[in-house]
Amino acid sequence: MKPMRKKLHIFLSLLGGWMLVLLSIGTAHAQLEPFKVSGKLCIPDQECLADSTVFTDTLATSTAWSWDFGDGSGIITSTKNSIKHLFQTPGMKLITLTRTVAGVPETVTRTVNVGVPPPAFPNWRRDTMICKEDLGKLVLNPYPSNAPNGAKYMWFPKGDTTQTLRVDSSGCYSVEVTSESGCTYEDKITVKVCLEQSNQEGAKWYFGNNAGLDFSGGSPQPLTDGQIKTPEGTSSISNSKGQLLFYTDGVKIFDKNGVVMPSKDTAALAGSPNSTQSALIVPKPTCRGCEYLYYVFTTSEINGQKKFSYSLVDMRRNGGKGEVVETNNLLNDNTTERIASVRNDRDSTYWIVSHDYDSNVFRVYHATKAGLEGPFQYALGAVQDTVSKGEGYMKFSPADSTGMRRLAVVVPGPPRNLVEIYNFSDSSGRLSGPQTIDLGPAPPKAYGVEFSPDGTKMYVSLQKGDAPGDTTLSRLWQYDISLGDSARIADSKILIDSSATQVYGALQVGSDGRIYLAIKDSQYLGVINEPDEDSQDEVRFVKDGIFLGGSTSQLGLPNFVQNFTNESSGPGFTYSDTCSNQATNFQASPLCDPIKDSYTWNFGDGSAPVTGQNQQVQHTYKMPGTYTVSLRLVNRCKDTTITQRITIIATPDPINLRSPIDTCTNRLVLDAGVQAEEYLWLRNGVPLARTKTITLQPNGGSGRYQVYAANGIEAQCFSQGATQITLRRPPAYSLGPDTSLCVGGGNVVLNAKPTPTNWNKFQWSTGETTQLITVTQPGTYSVQVTINTGTPQACVNEDTIQVRALPKARIAAVLTPPTGCTTTDGQIVIGNISPPSGSYTFEWFGPNNTMLSATGNTLPNVGEGTYRVMLRGNPAVCATDSSFGLRAVRTLRLQPTIVNARCTLPSSGAINLNTLAGTPQTYVWTNAMGAGLGTNAALLANLLPGTYNVKVTDAGGCDTTLRDITVGITPDKFLSLGPDRKKCIGDTALLIPSLPLIPGNQYRWSTGETTDRISVTRGGTYTLTVTNTVTGCTDNDDFTYSLAPRPTYDLTKEVPLCDLDDGAMATLAVRGGASNLSYFWFHSEERTSRVMVSLVGNYRVRISNPEGCELFDTARVVVRCEPRIYIPDVFTPNGDGNNDVLNVFGDHLTDFELKIFNRWGEVIFYTNDINQKWDGSYRGSVYPPMSYPYVVSFKSKFFPDRPRENQRGAVLLVR
């Protein structure tokens, strides 16, 4: 045996145990291994062929390699120092490596033992859905029988090591079974609880200065237990139920309890607090296991080492709280601060993208069940060769229907800010593009980027400059990336918000569909509530959108795998095709697939409910409108009803166009004939018009016509019709020249059949069907005429004629009024007639429309009144009928002087008429009702408020009337409630106003009462408003009723006094009152708070305070004596008649008992009658002289509630 092996054998013999064997071998050969072997030395699981062994040459100077794995697979050459290999058979294998060192081949060997993994789990289920009530009933067992010998078990999620596991909650459960050879087999089962929310890996956010948000309940709530304090990037991960697993700032990893996660390596993670996307947590896919391994990717600060690394967390360890099992595996040592990831939902693998520094190279890694594959490199876009260019965010968009996504990369300036938008396939990992969007000059500096949930909008945040004198603003922009080319996207920019004082940071979409904006040092995050919308108002951005519970945001927000923040959906239903009289399709989503549901649909239109197990149903609504549709979903776990309001759009009525149409006309009107919101006409397939009707003419009018009548925003509900039209030109037709008539008696005959065509059918616009019609009104008249030409269809033509109104003659008149109101010396002369030619005649009519004798252009000798003249005779104009009024000149001019009435004296108004011109003779005064007031004078006095009229006549009979002379009311104070007063609490005050007793007063107290007086007991301010319905006067006054407190005190109502005691006195005292109270005892007129009395009886006292409030009370003195008892110390029962018995004397007591004892404690005398005496004997025996103890007990007569009182003593018997 070689020395090394001998020492090892002795060492093993001493220590024993296979675990120590492995540890010792590793120690002994650490420096002797010719190459490194990692991974599992096991024949492959056929489903997980990628579970291979990795062989790595440890000699750094090697330049070429060839491998022989000793299993008949041949010699394999490689240009790398590392190679993977799958062994297909178990057993010992001699591995031979031939490597070239300095041009010289060198061969090294190593023997490995390839083991066999444990058998697959029989009857194992991968997924199950259970009811909540079933939790605790399901037991998982990978080997119900024939478990392999020596197998070890490791369960996820809590690291249990038993063979069986009872399921106590929903989630993924996996078990890894390790055989004695160290090979493993693993499988999982996903247990879902009906209607329990899932897909919430992005529910918990930790960021900034101890800030956090919890989205697991739908609407985010602040978290205040975070341990992170970092200016920029973070990442966190939850399980599918939204329960926190761990989070990181790229330097430390904190478990769900906020405790730094234990690690096999003491080194900190390679991230940086000042790295934009310092960390990103990505699950490591397993072949059949749950996601219990997590990559933690980190980027260091671009001003520092520029490293891109990953660590690995195993959540099965540390009691399910996780342990870091690998630390800082370097992927790239020249990277920017960007990391982004997305899950391929087709195979549950993950893509991770980073970007090199000083290069335009993207590195795409693929996290599969075989491990981390790649990188696949793509040289695209601009070179990121400055610190600033390497600091912006990188984000994936949601996938479209083909699985394509956008990848946005913020490239900050200077000189200009850019966003590069790439296309990414989540099935192949291929990256292409970019489109470059110019955001404008820097500063401000572009930083964050995020996509709207529907993938059509991109939001970018920019940070205001911080240099001295920089006046740039922080900004939040929206871009419409659905527009296609870069220029149109750049032009779609909408400013959502800006700030001169705050610094805007990262953007991150939440699982609630909103986008959140980090604002440095703010206790709030900004919120874009409707990010799919496309205007500043509609996106509803709120800068103080959500409170962080007192913690503060910095620049960063958590970095997630893009899919982890998608909105989750629950049971419900969708619908399509919402047109009346057409089938509307409904699609239900199951409650908890695959548990079978029963669906009951109620369509809200009065039709019978439909029940069945089909998820798809159809229903036809007869009428448009809004309906409430309910869907009841029932299975063995749940019974849930979901409602939605749907709007059914009216389908236009069927269009019935006559077809074919062969007609001979100059104008053919086609009418869709139905009501709709939109119309579309096509001729021979070419759009023609969007109106309900169209007018066709013979030139080009023939052809095939189609019409669509549609309702709805997208014109989705429509009817259609079609016709074939042949349109021929008819013979010419004309109604002749326009004509005229006189309105008001004139007429004209219109003839519809001018020569030479023999039209034989007529349709006038008036409705008449004759050849001739008579019209009496001016206007436009049309006629449609028809003639049978022998063609298949009669010819139709039409024409219009304008009938105009002839003008009237224009005249001017010179009016001479009469000199007085009763004289007849007035005159009217007509002149300046236009047109002047022609022979005119004049007819005159008087004020009563009676014809006058005058026939010329002059009407003489007339008085006041209205006169009419009729002018005829010129055929070019119509008769003129004009009226003229003659009125004598009035010389009276009057001006009223008004004195308004006063509220305190309503009949104090007056009107005095002042004559400015003329000489008044009579006055007739009336009130507003027209009643005469009997005063024929210029002064009208003693008036109430109101309106008055006066008619004044002068000597010439002319009168002047002044109407609606208003006498107003002058407000003055007429109401008083008197001065404020104080009352004692409990007193009643009667409030009586002081005011004139005028009819029509109405009262309104602030208490709501409407009487002329009120009684009040509560303190406060009371307001009275008095309105007089006759005068319109209103006044109000306030009265404050202050309540003074009554005295507070304490008086013993019953005081004991023993009247048998000489000089006994009882004290009556008022206690507990203020020091300023006054007292008066009525029995003695004493004025103190305390008095002494010697007699039983009632004693009355008055207690008053400085406010004058007083109370009366009575104290009663009653007989109350203490019990009294006396037993002599000695008695002499010697028969001499003096003191021969023991007398007990007592008063004011009851329940008396006396016991006398001998010296042995025996009762020798007992009585409960105080009058019974002891004669010194017991049962006929005379007791000797000596001292005898006694016990006397009793109760108080006046204080019966007291306990029994006992007294002890001794009496000396002397003979």
Automatic annotation (TrEMBL):
The keyword Repeat applies. It is a multi-pass membrane protein. GO terms for biological process: calcium ion transport. GO terms for cellular component: plasma membrane. InterPro entries: Ig-like_fold, PKD/Chitinase_dom, PKD_dom, PKD_dom_sf, T9SS_type_B. One of its GO terms (molecular function) is monoatomic cation channel activity. It is found in: Membrane. Keywords: Membrane, Repeat, Transmembrane, Transmembrane helix. Gene3D superfamilies: 2.60.40.740, Immunoglobulins. Residues 61-98, 581-655 form the PKD domain. It comes from the Bacteria. PANTHER family: PLAT DOMAIN-CONTAINING PROTEIN (PTHR46730:SF1), POLYCYSTIN-1 (PTHR46730). This is PKD domain-containing protein. It comes from Runella rosea. The lineage of its organism: Bacteria, Pseudomonadati, Bacteroidota, Cytophagia, Cytophagales.
